[in-house]
Design a protein that fits this description.
Layout (H helix, E strand, L loop, with lengths): L1 H36 L9 H13 L5 H20 L4 H10 L4 H11 L2 H10 L2 H28 L7
Length: about 160
């Protein structure tokens, strides 16, 4: 009878131990995500903000520049929330990428992402000038992708589609 009582007590405790470990694991992933997403520095001049707002500027002639500055600032804040919110594409991507890491690996990754040199590098990569260059390069690369794929298709005697 005492053995049964002990077993029942142990079985009652096990889910709480697992949950505690799980919440610590989740907390590490939350820290990793916070460090990773802290490089998302969008402001009113970021290409990611400017492009969609500039379309609105063209569709709304005669609106004063101070209004557009406010719109861009609010858009930057909204986009950061969109990109980094729980359940967002980035959140899901980080969680999927860390899914196979054990606690020791998560601690190591967290330390790397919080390293001052890495954070300085992140900030440089997220600067407006770097974002503008990447945006420009992606657009240029995108224009060349169709012809590149067509060349490969032709090499295989396939119909070009781009």
């Amino acid at each position: 009878m005492k053995i049964q009582a002990c077993l029942l007590a142990i079985l009652a405790i096990i889910p709480h131990v697992t949950l505690a470990g799980s919440s610590a694991h989740e907390a590490l992933i939350d820290q990793i995500e916070a460090h990773y997403t802290s490089s998302i520095i969008l402001n009113a001049d970021s290409p990611t903000v400017k492009l969609p707002v500039d379309r609105a500027v063209a569709a709304n002639p005669g609106v004063d520049e101070s209004t557009w500055q406010s719109v861009r600032a609010e858009a930057a804040t909204a986009l950061i929330k969109l990109f980094t919110a729980k359940g967002s594409l980035l959140d899901v991507q980080v969680r999927n990428a860390t899914d196979s890491l054990n606690e020791s690996e998560l601690i190591t990754l967290n330390g790397i992402l919080d390293n001052p040199v890495f954070r300085k590098f992140q900030a440089a990569m997220a600067s407006n000038s770097a974002q503008k260059q990447v945006f420009s390069d992606v657009m240029k690369a995108g224009l060349g992708m169709g012809p590149l794929i067509n060349t490969i298709l032709v090499n295989y005697h396939l119909i070009e589609v781009h």
